[in-house]
Amino acid sequence: MTRQGRGSTGPGRRSALPAADYKAPALVHEGASGGLVVDFHGEDGRRGTFDVGKLPLPGWHPLLAEAFAMRTGPGGGLRTLSGAQNRWLPLRRWTYFLASLDPQPVVPAQLTRYHVNAFHTRTGSAAGTRQRDMAELQVLFGQEKIRDQIPMEARDALARRLPGPRTNPEGGYSAGELDRLTAAARADTARIVRRIRAGEELVRRQQDESDGIPPQQQQLAQVLADVAATGEVPPGTGIDQWRERRELASRLFLTWSDLAPLMVLLALVTERNGETLKELPARHRLLEGRAVEVRLVKRRRGADRWFQTVTWEIGPEGRELHTPGGLYLLLLELTARSRAFCGSPSALCVWRNGHRVHARGTKHEHYAPFDADLRAGGQLQLSTWAATRTKPVLADPPAPTESAKGQENALPGVEMPLQVTFNKIKTSVDARRTRQLGGHLPSSAKSNTAQVLYTNYLRPDPATREWAEGVMADALADAERAARDAHAEVVRRRGSPTVIPSGSTPDQLTGAGLAPGTAHDLAQGHLDTAWSACGDFQHHPETGKPCGDSFLLCFLCGNCLITQDHLPRLLALLEALGRLRQRMSEEEWWRRYGLVWVAVRRDVLGKFTPAQVAQAQKEQVPDALLDLVEAPWETP
Questions:
Q1: Distance between CA atoms of residues 550 and 631, nearest Å
Q2: Around Cβ 136, how many Cβ atoms within 10 Å?
Q3: Which of 251, 509, 543, 628 has its CB 3.0 to 4.6 Å from that of 199, i.e. a possible disulfide?
Q4: Residue 163 gets which letter from DSSP?
Q5: Cβ atoms 576, 627 nearer than 8 A
Q6: Cα 110 to chain centroid, rounded
Q7: How confident is the model at residue 577 (pLDDT cuts 50, 70, 90)?
Q8: 309-324 pLDDT per residue, tens
Q9: What's the pLDDT at 126?
Q10: Burial 196-228 (b: 16+ CB within 10 A, else e)
Q11: Cα(68)–Cα(74) distance, rounded to whole angstroms?
């Protein structure tokens, strides 16, 4: 089976199949020492061996080997070497704990509820470790072919409910911090590019036009040409030989110290997490010279969903540090020589300064640091790079404390180096992309689902919350402004309510300017509607015909009459509208009730004194009557 990639199958083309006599190798076999061994072959090509025979309690070995083989096999949930190594530890702790008991359950059939409970409540491990161990045992011993080999009472104890893991997602950087980090990574990467391209140019001139090389560079050009041809960096001649070798090799190859700014810039430009970038492949496909197609590894996506093909824009010449495709091709250019010597398919290949004695001075100093173990990235020390640059990348100064506020001579905030992690970079670029797309999560989700994007990247980010609050505040201000403008236009056409706050007797109402008959009917309640009164129901201000509007529109009508007696019902109406505002979207609420809210708040309540409003609030009104003025199917 040698066909790979796109085009390996299709209509009329058979799938690549193994030979007829092919037999899959057994995952569990007997090792050289005579004990059982489980072989592991991950999705990413990394392999490992787990020696069950070295564990105590030999009577458990067949069950443990079978369970772990199923857990890490092709149908299991663990498909990376690091994942298998992490899940091997609970199994080891389990067997060593059982071996420490007296009496020991020497075979699975002797396992009881007491043993499981004792393991879960043991005092020699942290609570988080015990929690993870029990969760792994539930999966390990809950597999179909394994659970029947465990006694029922022990299975029942293993099946206990476990609280979910406590996670503390990291927030991202502020806009200023992100800009400073991007500028620093881009500047350092540009220096790396200029350095290696200058060395390559010197090698080219040595091979093609050696006579034109200045005398002071001829010896260096010859040495670099030999290094380029063999990949072997000669030893230094001075006191600091390690530094001399590193400086000489850095003229043609990436070194370990170059990875920090380069990886940071890759994370910023491609908007991918650190694990994906560590496994960037050198294999790619150019699309008409304008884009590059790369197949990425995206872990933690579940079985059979590890790989994702992306298309990255290359961009114009000279802008390689600003586009994902351009930066990817630039990375391949910088690592081409090291990759040729180490033979790795990875895009990230560097030169190491004799980390192993037997490799020093040979072409084996070229290697792909993440091929064997992704955890090698822990040595990248991104924060150290940011802090030790000639111009360090600084974090925003801390906000002044409450005790320092108002003190004129308070010391300014101390500037601290920025703490750089791939998680914070990913959070920041995801938040930036979400803001650029107006907060639409389905469009913003790039390498995660919208739910994961919100839960793990946007919600814990203070800058995103601040931006979202600003967007909501602006939207509410726009909605309120639109309602006020609409209210002014309606009032211009239909007039505004007549509010009489001075009294509610016929004489007081007549003194306020009402006709005696109207004043008498208003005082007796004969003109009342739901929350106000109507002075001329038969003649609508706009149509001149009998009114057919909702009672909610009475506050936008010149026939509306309001006295102090109506105030308790008006306050109940505002309270009911406030409750609806909690249950509806702001856009819908302002569309349906914005005009009423503005009219009552602006044209009515402002005419009463605070004492009158306070007195009205003490009166209990059982129902705001909203259900009578809106059809049930329209009620939210």
A1: 11
A2: 20
A3: 251
A4: P
A5: no
A6: 46
A7: confident
A8: 889 999 898 899 999 9
A9: 86
A10: beebbebbebbeeeeeebeeeeeeebebbbebb
A11: 12
Q: What is the rounded distance in angstroms from the CA atom of residue 445 to the CA atom of residue 442? A: 6
Q: Model confidence at 252, in pLDDT bands (50, 70, 90)?
A: very high
Q: Are the C-beta atoms of 487 and 479 separated by less than 8 Å?
A: no
Mean pLDDT of 261-283: 91
Q: Which of 77-86, 356-365, 417-426 has the lowest mean pLDDT?
A: 356-365
Q: Give the pairing of strands 291-297 and 285-287.
A: antiparallel
Q: Are 196 and 334 in contact (CB under 8 A)?
A: yes
pLDDT over 80 (residue 473): no
Q: Which two three-digit tokens encode residue 134?
A: 């029990």
Instruction: Report the alpha-carbon distance of residue 39 to residue 31 in Å, rounded.
Output: 10
CA distance 196 to 251: 5
Q: What is the 3-state secondary structure (H, E, C) of 256-325?
A: HHHHHHHHHHHHHHHCCCHHHHHCCECCCEEECCCEEEEEEECCCCCCCCCEEEEEEECCCCCCCCCCHH
Nearest Cα neighbor of 183 from 386, 340, 369 is: 386
In the DSSP assignment, the letter for residue 68 is H
Output the CA–CA distances (angstroms, integers) from residue 225 to 21, 163, 204, 256, 272, in the order listed: 51, 62, 8, 22, 36
How far apart CA 283 and CA 260 sit, in angstroms, is 23
Nearest partner of 345 among 370, 363, 327, judged by Cα: 370
- Exposure string over 546-578, b if 16+ CB within 10 A, otherwise e: ebeeebbbbbbbbbbbbbbebbbbbbbbbebbe
Distance, in Å, from the CA atom of 43 to the CA atom of 272, rounded to the nearest integer, reads 20
Residues 6+ apart with CB under 8 A from 14: none
Is residue 431 classed exposed, middle or buried when 0-12, 13-18 and 19+ CB atoms within 10 A define those classes?
Answer: buried
Q: Which two tokens stand for residue 444?
A: 């913003």
For 370, how many CA atoms within 13 A lie in the half-sphere containing its CB?
23
CA 127 to chain centroid, in Å, comes to 27
Q: Looking only at Cα atoms, what is the longest distance across the chain? A: 116
At residue 327, does pLDDT exceed 90? Answer: yes
Under the banding of pLDDT at 50, 70 and 90, the label for residue 258 is very high
Bond from prior residue into 103 cis (ω within 30 degrees of 0) = yes
Number of other CB atoms surrounding residue 415 within 10 Å:
12
18 residue type, one letter: P
Return the higher-pLDDT residue of 329 and 34: 329
Residue 560: phi and psi, rounded to 5, are: -75, 135
Distance CA 412, CA 425 (A): 27
Residue 526: exposed, middle, or buried by beta-carbon count in 10 A (0-12, 13-18, 19+)?
exposed
Nearest to 586 by CA among 441, 476, 471, 465: 476
AA letter at 442: P
By the 8 A CB rule, do 432 and 446 touch? no
